[in-house]
Specification:
Elements (H helix, E strand, L loop, with lengths): L2 E6 L3 H13 L6 E7 L3 E3 L4 H5 L9 E3 H4 L6 E4 L2 E5 L4 E4 L3 E3 L2 E4 L3 E3 L7 H4 L1 E2 L3 H18 L5 H7 L1 E5 L3 H21 L7 E5 L11 H13 L2 E4 L2 E6 L3 E6 L2 E6 L2 E4 L3 E3 L1 H4 L13 E2 L5 E2 L2 E6 L4 E2 L13 H20 L13 E5 L5 E7 L2 E5 L1 H19 L1 H14 L22 H21 L7 H16 L10 H10 L9 H4 L7 H5 L4 E8 L3 E7 L11 E6 L1 H11 L3 H24 L3 H18 L2 E2 L4 H8 L11 H13 L2 H6 L5
Parallel strand pairs: 1-2, 1-9, 2-5, 9-22, 11-18, 12-13, 12-18, 13-14, 20-23
Antiparallel strand pairs: 3-4, 6-7, 7-8, 10-19, 15-16, 16-17, 21-22, 24-25, 25-26, 27-28, 28-29, 29-30
Helix pairs in contact: 1-10, 11-12, 13-19, 14-15, 19-20, 20-21
Length: 676
C-alpha cells in the first residue's frame, strides 16, 4: 500500500526535509512525497533586507521549486493550506485536499504585533518576498516624491524612517537602509540631513543574542551610519504619519514617514489553529518530542520555526533560525524513514549550533561563531566572509551549482555602489566588446603556433625528446646541474647542441609556448642567472632564470618553470619511450592549438576554449617552462574566460540555444549543472 508524506511549507526546513526524503525513498515507488506552498518558489528570508534596500535584484532571493525538485520523487502543489483534519489525515487547501500517512508541518511564521494599535495597518512588514518588493518600491517612491517637495518640514517628515525591533531582522534592515540612503540622496539631489533613521526596541541593547561587546560594536556602527538607537522603549501605537513610544513611563509622539515592523514572529494561522489536536505553546509553536513528532500525534512531525523543543541539558527552546531548520530537517527525514520502513533506530534531535552572524549593510558585519562551549568573535571582514560562505553551503544542499553561481553573481560580480565587503573590485563595469581585439589576437597566436608546428613536421616525426630535453638542458646549465635524469651531462649536451647548431627544441613555440632549448650559444658561454630556485616540500620546484646576465637581459630572456616530479615521471615513463605515443601527443597539441585559436577568433565556445588555453599553458609551464614575454597568453585567457565571446562573437547566437538544449537533459536538471 502506498504511503503518503505531505509537507506543508517550502521554507528552509520544508524544502530540505523534502529533498532528504526524496533521496531516501528514490527507489521506493510505494512512497509519495508532496510539498505544498502558496508560492512556486522558495524565499531566502534571511536576505529580504538586501532586496528591500536594493542591494541585490529581487529575483536573487527566489529559488524555483520546480528547479529544486527536478528529477526527484516530489510532487509540488501550489496551494494555500486553510486547515488540517488530523482525525481524517487530510490537509485541506484552497484548491484541493491532500491525504497523508505522515505529515510534516513546516508552515513557517508570520509577524506578531503584540496587540499594538495600528501596527498591522500602518507598518511595512519584512517577512516575505512580496514584503521586500513592496518596501523597496515604497522607499524609492518616498525619495522620488521628497525630491519634489518644496516644504522642508514636510520633506523631513516624509524622510523619517523607523524600524521597530533591534534583533537580527531589524538591525540588518536599518543597516541596509542606512547604507542605501546616501546613494538615494545623491540620485535625487536630497540633503542627507533631511533623512532621519531610528531603530526602536524594548531591550537594553541591539541583538541580545550576541555578547555585549559585539552589541556595542553594532551600536557604534549604526551610529556611524546615522542611525539613532532608541532602546528600552516600546511602541504603544502607530498611525498614518506617526509612531508613539513609551520610554521610562513617558509617552513620546513622533512623526514618522515610514515604519517598518521587525519586532517578532509567531507561527502561521494553520499551525496555531491546530490547538485542539496538537500541543501549542507560546508564539503558536508546537511541542515536539525528542524525535520531532508532535507530543499528541506521532504521525505529525514539526520542523523549523513551528517546533518548540528544549534539548536535553538546555534551558531554552531551539531558536527560530536557519541552522535549526537545516539540522532538524535531517533528523526528521531519518525518523520518518524509520517509521515508514518499520526498521532502523530513530534519532534523538541533538542540535549543535555554530553561532550567529549579522550584517549591517553589505560592507560590515559581526559574528560570534564556533562549536558548543567554544565560541569566538570574528572581525568584520571574516564575519561577512563567513556569512556568504554559510549561505553557499545552504545553496549546495538546495540548488547546487545553479544557485551558487547566481548568488556569487548578484553579491559580487554585478553589485553596484561598492555595497560588498570586498567593495566593487569584482563587479563587472567594463563593456565586454573591449575584449574582442584581445580575444582575436590570442586566437590568432594559437593558430599560428599550430601551423608552424605542422610545417616543422610534428605530424610525421617524434620531436618531443628534443623538445623537452633541450629545454631541460638549458635550465640545468644555468642551475649548475651536471647530471640529467638520463645521466647526460647537461652542459655538455647543450654545448654539443650549440656546436651542431641545432635548432631549438620548439622553433615556433619558443616565442609563444615554451622556454625550450634557446640560445645554445649562450649556454656554451655559461651565461645565465638564477633568480629563484625553490624546492617546496619535494612536491614542486619553482624556477625563475634568465639566459643572459641581468644587465643585458630583456623580458624575452626570463623564463619561468614549475618542475613537478609527478609530471616528469609521466613524461619520462609514458610519453618519451615510445615514438608513436610522442607523435600522437604532438598531433593532439597541434590540433588543440588550432582549434582553440579558431574558437577564440570566432568567439564560439569561448569559455571552454579559454579554459583549455590555460590548461595548455600550464602543461608548458610544467614541462618546458614559459618565457615572460609569453605570459600575456595566460592573462588573456583569464580575461576572456567568462562572457568573452558574447560581444561580436558566435557565442552571442549559439549559447542561448545550447543552454536551452542543455537544460532539457534530465540529469542536468537533477544535478543543477546549468546557469540561468
Amino acid at each position: 500500500m502506498e504511503k503518503k508524506i505531505v509537507i506543508i511549507g517550502a521554507g528552509y526546513s520544508g524544502i530540505l526535509t523534502a529533498k532528504k526524503l526524496a533521496k531516501k525513498f528514490k527507489k521506493n515507488s510505494n512512497v509519495s512525497i508532496t510539498i505544498i506552498d502558496k508560492n512556486p518558489f522558495h524565499t531566502m528570508l534571511t536576505e529580504l533586507h538586501e532586496v528591500a534596500a536594493s542591494r541585490v535584484d529581487e529575483d536573487s532571493i527566489k529559488i524555483s521549486l520546480t528547479k529544486v525538485f527536478a528529477g526527484r520523487n516530489v510532487d509540488v502543489k501550489l496551494d494555500t493550506v486553510t486547515s488540517i483534519d488530523y482525525n481524517g489525515k487530510t490537509v485541506i487547501g484552497s484548491n484541493a485536499s491532500y491525504k497523508y500517512d505522515i505529515l510534516v508541518l513546516a508552515a513557517g511564521s508570520k509577524p506578531t504585533y503584540y496587540g499594538v494599535p495600528g501596527a498591522e495597518e500602518y507598518t511595512f512588514k519584512l517577512w516575505s518576498y512580496e514584503d521586500a518588493v513592496i518596501l523597496k518600491d515604497h522607499i524609492h517612491n518616498t525619495f522620488r516624491k521628497a525630491a519634489c517637495e518644496p516644504n522642508t518640514e514636510e520633506r523631513r517628515k516624509m524622510l523619517s524612517f523607523y524600524v521597530v525591533g533591534a534583533g537580527f531582522t531589524g538591525v540588518e534592515m536599518i543597516g541596509e537602509l542606512a547604507e542605501y540612503v546616501p546613494i538615494l540622496c545623491e540620485k535625487y539631489g536630497i540633503n542627507k540631513s533631511d533623512v532621519t533613521m531610528f531603530d526602536v526596541d524594548g531591550l537594553s541593547r541591539p541583538i541580545p543574542n550576541l555578547p555585549e561587546k559585539l552589541s556595542d560594536k553594532v551600536a557604534k556602527r549604526l551610529d556611524k551610519m546615522g542611525v539613532q538607537l532608541i532602546m528600552n522603549a516600546t511602541v504603544s501605537s502607530v498611525g498614518t504619519d506617526y509612531i508613539e513610544l513609551k520610554q521610562n513611563d513617558k509617552i513620546l509622539h513622533n512623526t514618522a514617514g515610514t515604519v517598518i515592523w521587525a519586532a517578532g514572529i509567531q507561527s502561521t494561522d494553520v499551525t496555531q489553529n491546530s490547538g485542539s489536536a496538537l500541543e501549542i505553546t507560546r508564539g503558536g509553536r508546537v511541542q515536539v518530542d525528542s524525535y520531532l513528532r508532535s507530543t499528541k500525534n506521532e504521525n505529525v512531525y514539526i520542523t523549523g520555526d513551528n517546533m518548540f523543543y528544549i534539548p536535553e541539558g538546555e534551558e531554552r527552546p531551539v531558536p527560530q533560525m536557519v541552522e535549526n531548520c537545516e539540522q532538524c530537517a535531517d533528523v526528521a527525514a531519518h525518523n520518518i524513514t524509520c517509521a515508514i520502513n518499520g526498521q532502523g533506530k530513530m534519532e534523538v534531535y541533538k542540535p549543535a549550533f555554530h553561532g550567529v552572524m549579522v550584517s549591517i549593510g553589505g560592507r560590515y558585519g559581526v559574528a560570534h561563531v564556533g562549536l558548543p562551549g567554544h565560541f569566538f568573535s570574528l572581525p568584520s571582514f571574516l564575519a561577512m566572509f563567513a556569512k556568504h560562505f554559510i549561505n553557499i553551503i545552504y545553496f549546495i544542499q538546495v540548488l547546487g551549482w545553479n544557485k551558487i553561481f547566481s548568488y556569487v553573481k548578484h553579491e559580487f560580480f554585478t553589485i553596484r555602489n561598492c555595497r560588498s565587503f570586498v567593495g566593487g573590485h569584482f563587479s563587472n563595469r567594463t563593456p565586454s566588446f573591449l575584449l574582442v581585439p584581445l580575444r582575436v589576437w590570442l586566437g590568432a597566436v594559437w593558430v599560428f603556433e599550430g601551423i608552424m608546428k605542422i610545417a616543422e613536421g610534428w605530424f610525421n616525426k617524434a620531436m618531443l625528446t628534443d623538445f623537452f630535453g633541450g629545454a631541460n638542458s638549458w635550465y640545468n646549465s644555468i642551475l649548475g646541474i651536471t647530471n640529467t635524469p638520463g645521466g647526460t651531462d647537461a652542459v655538455s649536451s647543450a654545448t654539443t647542441a650549440a656546436a651542431e647548431k641545432a635548432a631549438p627544441a620548439a622553433d615556433a613555440v619558443t616565442a609563444a609556448t615554451g622556454a625550450a632549448a634557446d640560445a645554445a650559444g649562450a649556454v656554451a658561454d655559461a651565461i645565465g642567472k638564477v633568480l629563484v630556485h625553490w624546492d617546496i616540500l619535494g612536491l614542486v620546484k619553482v624556477i625563475f632564470v634568465t639566459g643572459k646576465d641581468l644587465a643585458s637581459s630583456t623580458i624575452s630572456d626570463y623564463a619561468f618553470k614549475l618542475d613537478i616530479p609527478v609530471m616528469n615521471w609521466f613524461v619520462q615513463t609514458l610519453i618519451l619511450p615510445n615514438s608513436g605515443v610522442q607523435i600522437a601527443m604532438q598531433i593532439f597539441i597541434v590540433l588543440s592549438e588550432i582549434l582553440i585559436g579558431l574558437a577564440l577568433m570566432g568567439g564560439l565556445f569561448t569559455a571552454p576554449a579559454a579554459a583549455f588555453s590555460l590548461i595548455l599553458n600550464f602543461m608548458f609551464v610544467t614541462t618546458t617552462g614559459l618565457y615572460l614575454n609569453t605570459f600575456w597568453m595566460i592573462f588573456a585567457a583569464i580575461a576572456v574566460l567568462i562572457g568573452g565571446g558574447r560581444s561580436l562573437g558566435l557565442d552571442y547566437y549559439a549559447m542561448p540555444g545550447l543552454k536551452k538544449l542543455w537544460k532539457r537533459i534530465p540529469l542536468v536538471r537533477k544535478l543543477y549543472i546549468y546557469n540561468d
